[in-house]
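okkk here we go again. third time trying to get the coenzyme A bound version out, last two times i messed up the smiles copy paste (missing a bracket lol). double checked this time i swear
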Amino acid sequence: MNKCNIDLLNQHFIIMENKITFQFISEPTDVNFGGKVHGGAVMKWIDQTAFACASSWAEGYCVTIYAGGIRFYKPILIGNLVKVVAKVIYTGKTSIHIAVDVYSRKISEFEFNKTTHCVIVFVSVDEAGKPKPVNSWTPMTEKDKHMEHYAKKLMQLRKDIEVEMQPFLKEYL
Ligand SMILES: CC(C)(COP(=O)(O)OP(=O)(O)OC[C@H]1O[C@@H](n2cnc3c(N)ncnc32)[C@H](O)[C@@H]1OP(=O)(O)O)[C@@H](O)C(=O)NCCC(=O)NCCS
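finally!!
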């Protein structure tokens, strides 16, 4: 993710990109019992990339407040090239909503296949761990607007899920 300061005709603009991409090769240590990449390894990559994206946008430390709805479409093979793309798709007062897509391809091929998708929500926090305001993200393109709409819709759905989950958030012994 780049943040560039541009001085144009004595006007100072700060341009912040809302996207970060990790690329690497899946390793033998990422294997599951079926010989492919472990779902837990994919979740770790998703969390790391989304964390890097959120913290860069917030210009400070962020914590995950919500991760859910991870959809694994296709398996990833060991030794494949993996690409994890994290994008800011919505910002609230203190929260940053990140859409994450995971792609993979054989090293010998050119085309990536999408394997996984989810949206993770981070909150920017201060030194005491309390939520602190974030730079707001403004969607510019039609695709950005579509993604922001998607984030807002998920927020609404999440409220209904929270109501259903409420009795199970308490500890039962
Ligand atoms: C993140 C944390 C500081 C937030 O504090 P809080 O008092 O619970 O949260 P608040 O009610 O002030 O809400 C903060 C933001 O989270 C959002 N939020 C709250 N519940 C949410 C949920 N279930 N899903 C998504 N966002 C949620 C709020 O909408 C608010 O965003 P906004 O300011 O953009 O509107 C606190 O919940 C916490 O420390 N959680 C543990 C984090 C953690 O350990 N993560 C895993 C390791 S990184």
